[in-house]
Design brief:
This protein is α/β, with parallel strands linked by helices. The protein contains 11 helices and 14 strands. It has an 8-stranded mixed sheet, with helices on both faces. Strands 2-3 form a two-stranded antiparallel sheet. A two-stranded parallel ribbon has the order 6-7.
Length: about 375
């Protein structure tokens, strides 16, 4: 159903369950055979008869399958990349069949630590297996098979979504026509690992965490702090200066106490509180750890070009000038490795003040790049 404003309108969540039969479980990097696994996903547009127009969008750490549209008329917000997905938009649903799934380990419908273990009839919590980006991709590949798609026209994602896209290109090269990797990296830096560690420490140090066996309330303070810390890394000093400066929050002078005196403090507090309402603390632990472990060149002795040896896809790599979480040099490192393999790669570093969050905010500029790239890719396969 299309909405009056040209968007997608009301969309439905779908579930794909696998691994509930012997021999069908998911083999994880940690060595465990895991199942059953449910993958929550949404799809938009229609798969063409030749099955050549399918695009998989991959979400970041705090994202989910709800990339566009609304689940009901009363929803206040549309999906997290709604400005990019829909009729006539960059991911044009009049041309392409768009799929987005919640990752393994998530808390928005896919199997994660707060799912029920069928062997014990209890929540997995910290008995959930430690997962990797490759495990997430392997689960997505099962969904691909279920949907009857033999080859993605493109895989697109920002941040952790870009990590998944790169992993797809290496793990399933025959299933990937092209990759759109935005504001991402081929491996997490020590600084990024450090930020994730502090966030997890905040969660696990909250008395409400209870060793991961919390009830409905959970470690709200710890999760809120983890979100506030993470959110700072998504911004830039310039964007924060422009938006908040040193402006006080509803005060004419300092309060001379430790409440939120500054607008930026109030903003971060809001971000933390709203995150607690929609995200699970244990999922944050497992997904952030999966990001820590991501190193595409690990199996090739640190040689990223060698790691891309299986890849055959065309690539569009996009970075942002003020992104200090995954800075442009990390994208250029990816581009250099791809070119060493002789792969077709386009690269654009967008001048932006918005830091890492630019992949969600600079959709006007990104949209033009993505639209042109997809149009050229589709022209090569269009029957």
């Amino acid at each position: 159903m299309a909405s009056v404003d040209g968007g997608i309108g009301i969309v439905e969540e779908r579930d794909f369950l696998f691994g509930d039969k012997p021999g069908d479980k998911l083999r994880l990097d940690c060595g465990k055979e895991f199942g059953p696994v449910n993958i929550r996903y949404e799809s938009y547009g229609r798969l063409n008869p030749a099955r050549t127009n399918a695009v998989l969008i991959l979400h970041a750490l705090s994202g989910d399958a709800h990339v566009a549209g609304r689940h009901s008329e009363s929803d206040r917000k549309a999906g997290w990349w709604d400005s990019m997905v829909g009729p006539g938009k960059a991911f044009d649903t009049d041309k392409y069949f768009i799929v987005c799934s919640n990752v393994l380990g998530g808390c928005s419908g896919s199997t994660g630590p707060r799912s029920t273990d069928p062997l014990t009839d209890r929540l997995y919590n910290m008995d959930f297996p430690v997962i990797t980006i490759r495990d997430m991709v392997n689960a997505q590949h099962r969904l691909m098979e279920q949907l009857g798609i033999e080859r993605w026209l493109s895989l697109a994602g920002g941040s952790m979504g870009g990590m998944q896209a790169l992993q797809w290109a290496v793990s399933y090269p025959g299933s990937v026509k092209s990759v759109i990797a935005i504001a991402t990296t081929s491996r997490l830096s020590p600084q990024s690992i450090a930020f994730n560690w502090v966030g997890r420490e905040a969660i696990m140090g909250d008395p409400g965490w209870m060793g991961g066996e919390y009830g409905e309330k959970g470690p709200e303070k710890g999760l809120s702090i983890a979100r506030m810390l993470g959110h700072i890394t998504y911004l830039s000093d310039e964007s924060m200066a422009r938006k908040f400066g040193r402006n006080l929050q509803n005060l004419k002078d300092y309060a001379f106490d430790f409440s939120h005196n500054f607008q930026v403090e109030s903003y971060l507090r809001h971000q933390g509180l709203s995150f607690v309402e929609r995200f699970d603390a244990n999922s944050y632990l497992f997904i952030s750890r999966a990001m820590d472990y991501f190193d595409l060149s690990e199996d090739s002795g640190g040689d990223l070009a060698a790691a891309f040896a299986p890849a055959t896809a065309d690539f569009l790599v996009v970075s942002f000038s003020s992104d200090w979480l995954f800075p442009p040099e990390q994208s250029r490192h990816i581009v250099g490795a791809l070119r060493k393999r002789g792969l077709d790669v386009s690269y654009c570093n967008i001048n932006s003040i918005y830091g890492h969050d630019a992949f969600l905010l600079e959709t006007g500029t990104i949209g033009k790049l993505v639209s042109d790239f997809l149009r050229n890719q589709f022209a090569e396969v269009e029957p």
